[in-house]
Fold:
Amino acid sequence: MSRPTQVTIDLQALRDNFALAQSLAPNAQTMPMVKANAYGHGMVAVAQALADTAPAFGVACIEEALELRDAGITQPILLLEGTFSADEVNTAALKGFWLMVENQPQKEAIINADIAQRVNVWLGVDTGMHRLGFAPQEVAGVFRDLSESRNVNEQIVVATHFACAEDFDSEFTDKQLATFHKTVTDFDSVKTSLANSASVLGRPDTHRDWNRPGYMIYGASPFDQPQENADKLKPVMTLSSAVISVRQIDTGEAVGYSGKWRAERPSTIATIGIGYGDGYPRTAPYGTPVLVNGIECPLVGSVSMDMISVDVTDLENVAIGDPVELWGKQLAVNRVAASCGTLGYELLTRMPLRVPKIYP
Ligand SMILES: *Cc1c(COP(=O)(O)O)cnc(C)c1O
Structure:
């Protein structure tokens, strides 16, 4: 007795994907990224499922880190964007959060903090993405200032982030890698961290002391083409619903708001109980694949808040209650995303609270 729309989260698949990330880089520590509610999968449930194997977790901000601590997660938690205000350094020291340092104010907040425990610090280098991090020529000075601070633990990790790691045709990763090497070459026995999912999967030459995979542990591929390791990933999130109405329409009839799509033949239209209020993209165009009874059918009409319409003319005996998969185990989220001109990352991450999450 409930609306059939739900997301099912397969935590065993998550664990298998994480184990794959670890096995691809046996000499690295693998830190799963659980920011943004674990890419929409439920941050606490995901962290708990990985708590016995993950050496640390990565989040975007201190609010996320506190949520994990409050839920009983004991591992170090890296704040990928560091602090946003100086008082966060005190909380981080007390709670065992690691701080990325990306700019001078963040560095000064750590050095000037009045804290009893030292904090672990990661130093972010801008090797070409031009979003966060210190310019390569600033790094030696920042490293020295941090090393000399009594607030900072000895082992500083120097890190960078790749802008085009999923694009094997791009030479940009090689450029970033070379810039990074040049930057840390004079540092003695420094620890480093580079790889995101795409590089964990496809660039063993980028594996370092710490790897930082996100998307892949949720079972989706960062690549838009088949890739040996990515093809072993198991989708973690399945978004499903059911048929809530079925009707026949004549040639030339329209379906849904705006009436722009028109039937080119006598058609059977199934209405599905899911819409943009449930995280299904409103921009999904006609023809976006939807699985009805396990068979791919085209979306028709425009996506409503609570419903979509699907052309099931080529299916037999579609009835109210029949199962529908929007993405997941049988339909890769990347395919739906490609149809909508976005990334699977976005579709997973913006899953709204309205959709109940089932952890079987
Ligand atoms: C989100 C994030 C990652 C993970 O990226 P994926 O493509 O999801 O693997 C790694 N490093 C940093 C700094 C990030 O912000």
